[in-house]
Design brief:
By secondary structure, the protein is mainly alpha-helical. The protein is built from five helices and no strands. It has one domain (about 10-105).
Length: about 110
């Protein structure tokens, strides 16, 4: 049961993954690994939902877990989450830049 005022583990993972540009990547990665391990052990279903919410490709997850079977699953998942979040950041930058350029062209 969640205590009011406390973030759930998935919310903490979202928060940590969103702050990867604000803190050293290794620190964010370590925090993600810890939180993902917590979800693996306590609420695997929420982890699956979280990965879907973050939009980490399911086929990619399976492939990376198979290719890195010698590594801790949480570290593999953390790397995939970081990769996806960085892709989103780049996409937003390009989209924002494109919109700003379009706005500038339309101004008189």
């Amino acid at each position: 049961m969640q205590v009011p005022g406390q973030d759930s583990l998935p919310d903490k993972i979202i928060s940590a993954s969103n702050s990867i540009i604000e803190m050293p990547e290794e620190k964010a990665r370590e925090e993600l690994i810890f939180l993902i391990n917590e979800l693996i052990n306590k609420d695997f279903h929420s982890l699956i939902q979280l990965l879907y919410r973050i939009d980490v490709n399911e086929k990619k997850i399976r492939l990376y877990l198979e290719e890195n079977s010698d590594k801790d699953s949480a570290s593999v998942l953390a790397d995939l989450i970081i990769e996806r979040q960085l892709q989103k950041i780049e996409s937003r930058k390009k989209y924002t830049y494109k919109n700003n350029a379009d706005d500038h062209d339309e101004k008189w």
